[in-house]
TrEMBL record:
Belongs to the GHMP kinase family. Mevalonate kinase subfamily. It is an enzyme of class 2 (transferase). Keywords: ATP-binding, Cytoplasm, Kinase, Lipid biosynthesis, Lipid metabolism, Magnesium, Nucleotide-binding, Ribonucleoprotein, Ribosomal protein, Steroid biosynthesis, Steroid metabolism, Sterol biosynthesis, Sterol metabolism, Transferase. Pfam families: GHMP_kinases_C (PF08544), GHMP_kinases_N (PF00288). It comes from Massariosphaeria phaeospora. Its EC number is 2.7.1.36. It comes from the Eukaryota. This is Mevalonate kinase. SUPFAM superfamilies: GHMP Kinase, C-terminal domain (SSF55060), Ribosomal protein S5 domain 2-like (SSF54211).
């Protein structure tokens, strides 16, 4: 296959659909330069969307970079990427990334295609790329420097990371003949909070480009599990390349969970080989409290801190990393044992203890932060659950696995003395005999403690998120049309302008068809028209 003919031009790849209303470019919303204000989308090519979830690392962050296993699970916060096609006369590719106040347009004809298709450099959609090519990064240099040249250095860094991730994948997978496009990205995942926002955007970019070059089949009904796995693997390999452009030295756990969804045991001992990924179907849907310190930090920097500690104190650091690996193994052993009962307080306490130990070890590695310790202090004081930092640390988020109904006695302020029901066995067995009224009293008490805690966290400037663990991975809405419950001809097209105008998480979710029935502490999601690769369903219908 020659370098020029491998990727199929999106113009040829996408079947035409009866005239969708041409999307107005988002220029008005972001204040872009005047030429982009005209309606200019290709009338023959409908826009489409992809989306991918964030993740939490439940056990094993940092140690996973050094070859140990980690357990991670997808969450219901997601990134959404909208792809719209321009008429062929516009020889441009545009990124509209409003979450980071970034927009940029490159001329398709001036991008360094030659460098990416030179002999020995060209990569194909099915290749496994395990490191970035310094020559290709050099070739991208001036095109990345052209992004937000006047922005402060801290902002430029963020813009350049996203631009690098996009361009490296775009030039690797697309071709000179690629249809002019606008990529608009919105995410409900807080950035730099340990929830895998970069991985989820890398998965979205990878999936969108692979769809454009027709390198993916499905997702569709009756797709066998092995075929689903192959598609996810293909997306994940290129998402890892995108992650390398942002992080430098990622383990690949974030993009793996974001691409495949649910929960996995992940281990990469040899960076020249694909990681070993074991799906954890038995992973319970644990009630999870997620608190964001709102302290920004860089994953790359936190990973580098551990590498520095390892150079300075090799034996000690190795012992800590090894102990973290043992924490993950212990959790994995329990989760996969035949006797595992996710409703048992003893099993939950085992998982909770491991959370506490894991956090202590991360503190020893120097990747906690006073704000993370403050959150832990506030939550520990209530006795409501087991807390650890998640992701890179240095700020970012803390997760708390909540204990089952605590028989708590408050001191009237909601944070006083309590009796920890899951810390002693006799109590937990007697709990099973509780009458309905006692359970409901206990539930009310738990909610009261949570409400008080939420108020305290809010007072101190922390954000609390409600999320569901172990959801779907990458999804596709093609074309970007929703029927909103009725079968009206045509449905409602989501164009780039509407997408940019959607307000906040709720606005975005409503527009893209994620109807969530949010109750106090539960969430049921319906995603209209979206399709997902779900190997665990082994070919069962996958459409919501
Ligand atoms: N919504 C978004 N729009 C554009 N770029 C984004 C978005 N979310 C993340 N990014 C890119 O990802 C980078 C954040 O990556 P970082 O690893 O620091 O945080 P994270 O992925 O949220 O956390 P972690 O890797 O610890 O889970 C940003 O600097 C930006 O380049
Ligand atoms: C800190 C780390 O282990 C998790 C980041 O979410 C880094 C990685 O695995 O790439």
């Amino acid at each position: 296959m020659s370098s020029e003919d491998s990727p199929v031009d999106a113009t040829d790849a996408m079947p035409a659909r009866t005239l969708p209303s041409p999307p107005v470019n988002a220029a008005g919303v972001l204040g872009l330069h005047p030429p982009l204000l005209r309606k200019q989308s290709s009338p023959m090519m409908p826009p489409f969307m992809v989306s991918a979830p964030g993740k939490v690392i439940v056990y094993g962050e940092h140690a996973v970079v050094h070859g140990k296993a980690a357990i991670a699970a997808a969450i219901s916060l997601r990134s959404y990427l909208h792809v719209s096609f321009l008429s062929k006369s516009h020889r441009t590719v545009t990124l509209l990334f409003p979450d980071i106040q970034m927009e940029h347009t490159w001329s398709l004809d001036h991008l360094p295609w030659a460098a990416f298709s030179a002999p020995g450099k060209k990569k194909y959609y099915y290749d496994l790329v395990t490191s970035l090519d310094p020559d290709l990064l050099d070739a991208l240099g001036s095109h990345i420097d052209a992004v937000s040249p006047k922005a402060p250095e801290s902002i430029r860094k963020i813009h350049h990371a996203s631009a690098r991730s996009f361009l490296y994948l775009f030039l690797s997978l697309a071709s000179r003949k690629t249809a002019p496009c606008t990529y608009t990205l919105r995410s409900t995942i807080p950035i730099g909070a340990g929830l895998g926002s970069s991985a989820s955007i890398s998965v979205c970019i990878s999936a969108a480009l692979l769809l454009q070059i027709r390198a993916l089949s499905g997702p569709h009904q009756d797709q066998p599990a092995t075929e689903c796995e192959l598609q996810i693997e293909r997306i994940n390999r290129w998402a890892f390349v995108g992650e390398m452009c942002i992080h430098g030295n990622p383990s690949g756990v974030d993009n793996t969970v974001s691409a495949g969804g649910k929960a996995v045991l992940f281990q990469r001992k040899d960076y020249n080989r694909p990681p070993v990924v074991t799906p954890l179907h038995s992973f319970p849907e644990l009630p999870l409290l997620l608190v964001n310190t709102r302290q920004s930090r860089s994953t790359a920097l936190e990973v580098a801190k551990v590498a520095t500690l390892r150079s300075a104190h090799p034996a000690l650091t190795e012992n800590i990393l090894h102990a973290i690996g043992q924490v993950t193994e212990s959790a994995h052993e329990l989760l996969t044992s035949k006797k595992f009962d996710p409703t048992s307080p003893i099993a939950l306490k085992h998982l909770g203890d491991l959370i506490t130990i894991n956090h202590g070890l991360l503190v020893s590695l120097g990747v906690s932060h006073p704000k993370l310790e403050r959150i832990r202090e506030l939550i520990d004081h209530t006795g409501i659950g087991w807390t650890k930092l998640t992701g890179a640390g240095g700020g970012g988020c803390a997760i708390t696995i909540l204990k089952p109904q605590p028989t708590t006695v408050t001191n009237g302020h909601g944070n006083g003395t309590h009796h920890d029901s899951s810390s002693d066995e006799s109590d937990s067995s007697s709990e099973a005999d509780c009458s309905a009224s006692i359970i409901s009293t206990s539930t009310k008490l738990k909610h009261k403690i949570l409400d008080n805690l939420e108020a305290k966290l809010e007072n101190e400037g922390f954000d609390k998120f409600e999320t569901t663990l172990a959801g779907d991975g990458v999804g596709v809405l093609w074309p970007a049309v929703l029927h909103n419950g009725n079968e009206e001809e045509g449905g409602e097209e989501i164009d780039s302008e509407k997408f940019l105008k959607a307000e906040g998480t709720e606005g975005v979710e409503r527009l893209v068809g994620v109807a969530s029935t949010r109750k106090k502490r539960t969430e049921i999601e319906v995603r209209e028209g979206w399709k997902f690769w779900r190997p665990w369903e082994g070919g069962l219908p996958q459409i919501y």
